[in-house]
Amino acid sequence: MFYSRSLLAGFVAGSSLLIGLSPAVAQHAVPASIAVPSVEEVSSVPAADMLGDPVRGDLTDDIERLVMQDALAADLGDDLGASTVQAARMAYAQDLFQPIWSREGAASLVTLGNRLFDYGLQVEQVVGHTVQQVVETRFDAAAAADRAQADLQLTAAWLRIAAAVSGGLEDEGAAVASLSSRPARSLLTTALRRAGDGDAIGTLEPFEIDNAQYDGLKRALLEYRDIRARGGWYAIPRGDLVREGDRDERIPALRARLRAEGYAIDWGTEGPQRAPISTPTSGTEPLVEVSLGPPSTVDDQSADQLTDPTLLDAPLVAILTEFQSRHGLEPDGVLGPMTLAALNESVDSKIQRIVRAMEQWRRQGALGDRYVWANIPSFTVEGWKAGRREIQMKTIVGQPSRETPNFSDEIEYTVANPKWYVPVSIARRDKLPKLIEDSTYADRKGFAVYERSTGLRVRASAVDWGDPTAATRYRLVQDPGAMNALGELKIIFPNRHSVYLHGTPSVSLFKRANRAFSSGCIRLEKPVALADWLASHDTSASAAQIREAVASGENRHIRFGAPIPVHLTYITVTVDEEGVPNFWRDIYKRDDEIHFVERHGPPDVQTTASVALDSMGTTPAD
Description:
Elements: H1 5-15, H2 23-26, H3 39-43, H4 47-51, H5 59-68, H6 71-76, H7 82-94, H8 103-115, H9 123-127, H10 131-140, H11 144-166, H12 185-199, H13 212-229, H14 251-260, E1 263-264, E2 273-274, H15 295-299, H16 303-307, H17 314-325, H18 337-343, H19 347-364, E3 370-375, E4 380-385, E5 388-398, E6 407-416, E7 420-421, H20 424-437, H21 441-444, E8 447-451, E9 457-458, H22 470-473, E10 474-478, E11 489-492, E12 501-502, E13 516-518, E14 522-524, H23 527-536, H24 543-552, E15 556-569, E16 573-575, E17 581-583, H25 613-616
Parallel strand pairs: 3-15, 5-13, 12-14
Antiparallel strand pairs: 1-2, 3-4, 4-5, 5-14, 6-11, 6-15, 7-10, 8-9, 8-10, 11-12, 16-17
Helix pairs in contact: 1-7, 5-11, 7-12, 8-10, 8-12, 10-11, 13-19, 23-24
Organism: Thalassobaculum litoreum DSM 18839
Domain L,D-TPase catalytic: 370-547
Keywords: Cell shape, Cell wall biogenesis/degradation, Peptidoglycan synthesis, Signal, Transferase
């Protein structure tokens, strides 16, 4: 039986207001926005309208039938969720099941699909079909039912694109609400109707990720695709270590490789600079203009620099050091196996890493107006407010066998001069072997030993640490002090991983490039400075209060007035404040396999040594 279109439209719009109510309540509830007709109003409705017109087979009737028969749900599948389907139903119902897509809107949708390339996405992967073919069916098919089905498919295509660009149109998980906001259903309905009217591109703006890192990665994606279009770079053959002042046949290839990615030497007083990579305005414009400076500057260089292209000179060492810093390597200026491997990563591999980083940010969702961001591969933690980074420092993260997890939570409080209650796993793996070997270890490192069953303190020398049950029978507690493993302060966001931020007495480790040394928690280079920053925007705690607590030497808890979002991520490509991308080492091997260049350069930029490609393989040797 078919009901009148006006009654169906009211039913579909009203049904959305019942979502979230229990079945018992929902079946009796009356949506506030739907006026209940009086007896007189009902009696005045013609019988034909109350019963509904028979199916006439026109486009509107077919759309109505498909919408009410859950064809939208079938087109969208389960991945977008019931809320998205309901928003699409509302969009059709609000216009009495008229088609949403005009010719202008459909053309705009095709253009939008092509622009997904800028997001590292492919329209066929997102939508599942070619949009242009559906557009042709929507306006050229003879049967109204086919045109109606095509209109729903265009709607599904736009919703899938919006979901892909935003990272999701609704939150189905149990994440903290303030960290997982998604476009409201009313916004989705309005934007869908605007898209159909002709602005499919403009309506996508509210759904895009508002994130400085994401914006920088979008630009980097275009830049590295431009490098690829110009041929990328050639492989540098493996060989002996090359240090400053050494000569090696591969140095011309090294210069060409660095120049291809935008590294160039500025002969001015500020030393070497990385030349900006810019999108060319024509197909013949060089990607990077490399200037060797004014003739007088070049003339002042040593004869070796001008006549011996195989010399690893100081300017080239400075550029190589910068490359190493931007790739998570020791910045020693030495051409060694790990640096060679980073140099020989292909441009396609770097593009895919940028694309993966963009997808990770889309899935991350809203970060908050003020938040802490700890990125594991870059060994950094940052404090952000209103889209600006206000504080940054180095970190030490979990070693590969004890990975730091990536998740989001909220910082609740900080502890000055914390005690360290050694977890059983760390006691068993790290402390017991030392206690067995050295009976004075506990006393020297400031550990107290407690019997777990009674809570009584016992002498470390009285415990049989070789007993397999020792780690579970006894608890090791390290009092506050200079030797305490947590340093002078820890920052807590209660979570199931028992991970938190804290200081460390082992400050010398921050000098290293690879800082994966912890058992899972994140050690901070400047923990008090981060706590000060957290308190500086707080209504309850203050920086003075935190510093006084630390200086007291006493174990004190300081709770923040409002929780602060904290995001632990594993993203191997980030951009700095200048927009330059950094490609970090995949310390936990979570990314797809990195691919290497398999071709040598022309004779003028490659070694004269007879190193055959077949003998190299595709992966540089260690």
